[in-house]
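Structure ticket #2291
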Amino acid sequence: MGQPSKKFKMRNKIVAGNWKMNTTPAEGVELAIALKALMTEVPSDVELVIAPPFTHLDAVSKAIAGSAIALSSQDCAAETAGAYTGEIAASMITPFGAKYVILGHSERREYYGETSATLNNKMAQVYANGLIPIYCIGEKLDERESGKHFDIVKAQIEEVVYNLTPEQFDAVVIAYEPVWAIGTGKTASADQAQEIHAYIREVLAAKFGDKAAKTPILYGGSCKPSNAQEIFSKADVDGGLIGGAALVAADFVGIAKSF
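Resolution: structure written out below.
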């Protein structure tokens, strides 16, 4: 399973930083300013994306103005508007100049019980508001050890991505998270990343044909400057969805320079 494809020349290279529930607004602005100052070191064909907490979107958007850094939300609501205390609608995100929304992150699935049904609704909200989804998939440790990892990622794609129109699919970004190697003491090798990324592309191609060759697939494991070059050299790895290292400007830019 998962035969490598040739690196598609027009496939976007993306390094996205998910800040999660970290930084105060002032710290977020400081980090954004530091990243902006380092943008001259980022290759011109690599898109740098940052996803601060909702509370920071306005201030961070202003801090990165005039740079090539793209802004993302970490999530959005499945509803358009209404009595949903604490939720943030996609329409509330677009005014800040956001380009992307992260959907289906493993933490959202695990801690908040997000299902494919929920994510289909969120996908609809994202596209309705002119945003681009970074759709996360991945298997847990017991699923990997029982050999179900291919089945899990296939189901996560078929139940959500297969519902997109061909035009919507043109804009989607996939992020593979080896949940089994996050906080478990296990490590995922670059070859394991390539194997599952190539398989993901095969599953996408089964529905969308040649369009799958253009779909960016990001690696969402423990990526840092010391291992990014090896991981990014793989044919079907088009960048990373970065956690902890995204909170240090030099490390995050170091990862982007690893292509």
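Closing remark: The longest helix spans residues 190-208.
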